[in-house]
Protein 1
Amino acid sequence: MQSKLPNVGTTIFTKMALLAKKHSAINLAQGFPEFGMPEFLQERLAAHTKLGRNQYAPSPGLPILQEQIAALVERCYQNTVNPSESVTITSGATEALFVAIQAFVEQGDEVIVFDPAYDSYAPAIKLAGGKSIHIALRSPNFKIDWDEVRSKVSKKTSVIMLNTPHNPCGSVIDENDLKELKDIVLKNGLILISDEVYEHIIFDNKKHLSINTDPELFEHSVVLSSFGKTFHCTGWKMGYCVAPKELTTEFRKVHQFVTFSSFTPAQFALAEMLEQYPEHISALGAFYQDKRDVLVNALQTTSFKPLPCYGSYFLNVDYSAVSDKNDIEFSEILTEEFGVATIPISVFYDKAPNDKILRLCFAKNENTLLQATEKLAQL
Ligand SMILES: Cc1ncc(COP(=O)(O)O)c(C=O)c1O
């Protein structure tokens, strides 16, 4: 049998988690919060399960949750969408990404992917019969070179994958990026898949430039998000897709055959959370900015140099002052000998530059971040 994904093996996340466990290292590798989720959500999940809301939800999602998401999109980005026609609940953003790619990428299509990229994009594109056209973003700012994008768009290009705020770069798009992106998408008749799972985790008074803010570009886009990031419940695997009616129709054709529908009691609980605690979302940026600042300040006592981070819960550090080993080797040494697990960012590239950069997750308690930096200070 020939593998459909011959180059896919055990991911670095699994590898690093195992290595961290084996060496009792502090795990700043995997991107999940160390702290609990809002109690209200936990209670409502239990309540709805007890109330017997345990059967299939409608495939596009529960209307009350679709309505709350439409209200959120209106409040945050002034985009008015019809909840039943434009909002689809998915089993995490990973499902939404997979579905969107299967829905819009045909055999032989080319898809623009900015590296470093979330690891599910390229395999999903390959399974759809498409070809990823990788464009490497360069440290320390990881800005998109729009002339390079124009030079790589061809007659075969059908989709651009965007991620803002960006994992693992911590970068965000600005007004000029949005303008350039719009120009390219509209002129070439492309579809934009916009991965905005960290939409509410943005710092330094920057505004998240969601594709929802641009009515014309939105008409050609699907915007994906994740409740896992927003409500500290990555294990719930709950996400959603907001898109114009025509694209939503195609998206749902695939979604119904991937999962049909997503976890019913969680949909009830999330709808109530969104309605009753809007302040959770408005406070999320400040909550994570404090954590970023704790880590950045503590790193001043080490030889690791933090790179700019404007959003997401990841901070990249340049370790070139400490070692000239490549990032994979160095991350293993850090875990095994110094007790801190991180992710080498070369794994997010198709062709990695020879950077000396590691990704640190700061969705952790202050103590964990301080203990980790104490260990890093030994180098
Ligand atoms: C950029 C990006 N997109 C998508 C996802 C997937 O989100 P979910 O856990 O909701 O599937 C993640 C999770 O780490 C991510 O970092």
Protein 2
Amino acid sequence: MSLAIQSFIDQTKTMQKFDVIIIGAGPAGAMAAIEVAKQGLSVAVLEKLILPRRKVCAGGLVKRAVKLIPSEIKYPIEQQCHTITMKAKHLNMQFVETQKDLVTMVCRSSFDEALIKHASGLGVQVWDNTNVLHITPTQNNIILESNQGVFSSQYLIFAEGAMAKLSNQFWKDNRILLPSLEADVYASDKQLKAHQNAMFDFSVIRGGYAWVFPKGNHLSIGLAVMNKTCKTQLQQAFDGYLQTLGLTGAKVVNRKGFIIPLSPRSEPLARGRMLLVGDTAGLADPITAEGLTYAIQSGLGAGKAVSQAFEHPEEVVKIYLTQTIQPILNELRIARLLAKVIYHPNTMLRNIVFKHYGNRLCTGMADLISGTRDYASSLEKHPFLKKVIKKLPHKQQIDNV
Ligand SMILES: Cc1cc2nc3c(=O)[nH]c(=O)nc-3n(C[C@H](O)[C@H](O)[C@H](O)COP(=O)(O)OP(=O)(O)OC[C@H]3O[C@@H](n4cnc5c(N)ncnc54)[C@H](O)[C@@H]3O)c2cc1C
């Protein structure tokens, strides 16, 4: 017997078999696992890092995301934020909106840990320190080779985050990935007191924004580029911003850059027995860069589709694309158009919007993140804009699945 055949037989003997495997233990992966496990299917989550792991993120869990999380899942909260501030210092303007529990501030390592522990409590096998290296789909299942051995499953959910590589084997990666920078800033009590709102500052970088989020004993401060044509030295801009805030002497830790996917992949986000969720699919909001809502929503939707139609892969794809992805894409399409105005390199348009509609924009943003309004329903009040958006080309060819 040849060595290759012998090695294949050895591998299949020790192969770990599951109904569903999920790559990545972030919120998208954990929520998919929870949903699948609830229906009694066998699930494994394979995570390349040792858990709990750090994730570069401001940890602003907006109210509409909180609403999606099943109430039995408990997670640590750093601070509740009821007020958002939109600042346009260059125009000497500031807009404020208060609604109950608008943003729940979490620390991503402990938030993600709570979700994955909940999944584990439902019987999900969580394999951390497990780097998936190669994937081979066969007729009825999918074989995954990793540094911890070989796995097989009937469905595979890619939840590998913004830096997705494995899914690129099967999907063209044409997400728009834009840079951001985030740090934890430990300031004096007086300075912390002065920053108790979730602040979005539009006067710091061109084609992007800065944020200051209160996190109990520190602040999360960061910058995000939201327009791919705007090149910004984020490190320099960050130093300058700390100075503007009067925080030059503050202790800055975990200062790190990362990317945010601000547009989805153009191919359908599920095919065969494989589904894409969260940042891997490219589902962050192009206005706020908020990715947790759609990570959770797509994770839950993927898990639900797999459990509902397990024996029928074509049906799984159809359910996921029509019930979960299509509504998200409809929202993102409108948001992308509005983002073009807000983050246009020529700030004239944005200035006009702020000057004339600043208060309405701030209230609209609060309604949006609290989930009482979505982009589509906001458009209902503007029939002309609605008409224009309807005419925009539709990148995802869902109907052809
Ligand atoms: C600076 C910054 C600030 C942000 N702030 C906010 C915010 O305040 N609010 C908000 O809603 N969103 C925010 N986001 C976006 C948010 O962080 C993401 O949208 C969210 O983490 C996406 O979740 P996910 O589960 O898709 O991916 P992730 O949370 O990135 O999880 C993916 C997981 O997959 C693992 N993985 C990758 N490759 C492999 C492999 N080969 N094998 C096994 N495992 C693998 C990774 O290690 C990781 O644990 C921010 C992003 C950035 C960069």
